[in-house]
Amino acid sequence: MEASAKVSIVGxxxxxxxxxxxxxxxxxxxxxxxxxxxxxxxxxxxxEERGLQPDEMALLDYYRANAWACRQQQKLGDRAAVWxxxxxxxxxxIFLLRRAVNSxxxxxxxxxxxxxxxxxxxxxxxTLGRFIEARxxxxxxxxxxxxxxxxxxxxxxxxxxxxxxxxxLGHQEVFAYHAHxxxxxxxxxxxxxxxxxxxxxxxxxxxxxxxISDHYDIAAIGSGHQPSGWDMGKSSTERxxxxxxxxxxxxxxxxxxxxxxxxxxxxxxxLPNFVTAINEPPIIAGMFNxxxxxxxxxxxxxxxxxxxxxSHFSDxxxxxxxxxxxxxxxxxxxxxxxxFRTAYSILDKIAYFLNHYLxxxxxxxxxxxxxxxxxxxxxxxxxxxxxxxxxxxxxLFWLSRDLFEEGMRDSTExxxxxxxxxxxxxxxxxxxxxxxxxxxxxxxxxxxxxxxHSINRSDLERRTLRLLQLxxxxxxxxxxxVHKEERDRAKGKKxxxxxxxxxxxxxxxKR
Length: 511
Known about the structure:
disordered N terminus
């Protein structure tokens, strides 16, 4: 495409060119003009070819993401396009906004711009069904500026979407309470800080808050809900463990996404009501038991591996060499590694669950979390997913893309490549954990282990924690996706059904 004679950045400084592109993107959005979008993207590529400083590049990525948002807006009237799992325009925006967030210049950008970038990123993640990760991005924006009402109002709006995906009515009420508070506080902030966003949105957010208060008795929920005072365990060890899980949002309990309080300190989430044929056993209940138990056990192993600073008697008099590169060995290091491997394996087991539950017919040897979504690699999304309008399942799909698709790892989940590489080496190759990871001084370094995947112990622990958080999200998306699927299956059905309750397994039988 050739640049318009009326709009050109030839001869402009980088700063002036950035301003010109920003104005053009705004015009494109106001006029809903695709030719202006194309022109702004063309000029952006032209500017990037000059070679920009990190702060200029981060700002350009933000403007380009806004241009792709204009393209996305043009599809909103097409329901099939809105529910398309692929969402190419959203993918481009996420790539650009995450690149801006991870730029070395991000922290030096004006705080309003940082909040805008994080809020836009959160909105996109929420659109894709990654509503748990979206909340983390809105929280990050509000940590920068608590008055940034665009983040607070959108967080409240999205929280009600999360609430309607839940099957527990008590949880729905608590979510409605928090959503309403975010929206009311956000609307109040618009009056004080109108410059932080489009103040015309005050009516939009006010109407959402009103619909919530019309449907729920917010005052009664607020007075009746008791987030604190729940049992956190008899021993100091158990209490420390549960507080750690709460802080790191690791309970399989949606309430942990809105409250770091004892009410959320138990893994209450299970499968919703589901229907089987008369002679079909409740297989998916057993499958989910294994997924959940694997997760909570991996979580405990990580806590044990990071909480102890003493050696274990099982390591006494185990003969090992000191390789003079500060190696870290012992039971507690191995517990962290086992936690990582166990958590990663849950993702493929989720695919195994979906293959059975949705009757996809994929041969068992080919079932994994990367390939379950398509008939063929690089082929279209399977019809069941592309036509289901299932928001949590779409979140699962995009979580899988972050972790497994080449070209996506570095762009949409900054640590995804590191997680994948670490898993590959833990399962098949050689990982060396170090208390201190020395800088490489050259190929002739006497103590440089050229075969090992070397990792600092703190990085191993941090990456295992991040993986556990992603797996928790995946399990919640799975459960809520099943709930949506069951509701869709029930529509229009007139067959008689007999109810059968499954009893919970008592704690004293878990030996």
